[in-house]
Amino acid sequence: MLRRIAFVIFFSSVALNFAWLGFMSFDWKIIPAALIAWYLADALSGVIHMYMDYRPCTENVGLGQLFFYEGSRESEEYLSMRRAAMARISFFERVVFDFKNHHPRPLALGRRSFIYQTTSIMVFVFPLSVLLNIVCSLWTLPSWLLVGLDVLLLGMILTQYFHGTLHRDDNPWIIHAMRKTTLLMTPTMHDIHHATLDRDFATINGWSNPAVNIIFNYFKQQGKMDRSGLEPN
Ligand SMILES: [Zn+2]
Ligand SMILES: [Zn+2]
């Protein structure tokens, strides 16, 4: 219930940021601004995904046992192990674990509710949305800038939802239409990440994957991307 109330407040803030667009006049620059923002949202999804995949989990708190558990994940034994392990780590650490846990069990993300997929993102994006509310109430931003910021905000909020659609067959028509225009990536493109775990981290449209791959390879050469970080102990 508390989570639903938080979502209503969050989306009211986001809706207010979009409502300011109603007071704007048309400017051709809003089109490149929206496309650049869509690219930036994709790049953010890739860089954050890359960091979460390779950041080592806290050791010896039961995350390894959860990750490699071979029985049913619906069983009381697994659920109580999960509750105990999650109680020992921070909210951020839970998100890190979820990223790693997604690799061997990708379909689970597709089955999650929109609220589950978006809660961790809301925690980080809510302050940014409120900041934009305040800026817009004090100043009149150029329309191209407001469109860009709104598109970036929307891309960040929907990142894990879009990621979930890549692991599910049953999706709304708009997802399929956006894939045809390359505004969203296809499951085949995302499969490359799951097959390698060392490239193509972006999960919205994949436009930024060449750049994010360069960043990844740079850190890998510096010895910062050890594959041991991909699995908890
Ligand atoms: Zn990954
Ligand atoms: Zn995935």
From TrEMBL:
Keyword Transmembrane helix among UniProt keywords: yes
Pfam family, one: Lipid_desat
Residue ranges constituting the Lipid desaturase domain according to the UniProt record: 95-213
A GO-annotated cellular component: membrane
Membrane-spanning parts: 5-24, 30-51, 114-135, 141-162
Annotated membrane topology: Multi-pass membrane protein
Keyword tRNA-binding set for record: no
Key words, A-Z: Membrane, Transmembrane, Transmembrane helix
InterPro entries, alphabetized: Lipid_desat (IPR019547)
Family: Belongs to the fatty acid desaturase CarF family.
The name this protein goes by in its record: Carotenoid synthesis regulator CarF
Organism: Aquirhabdus parva
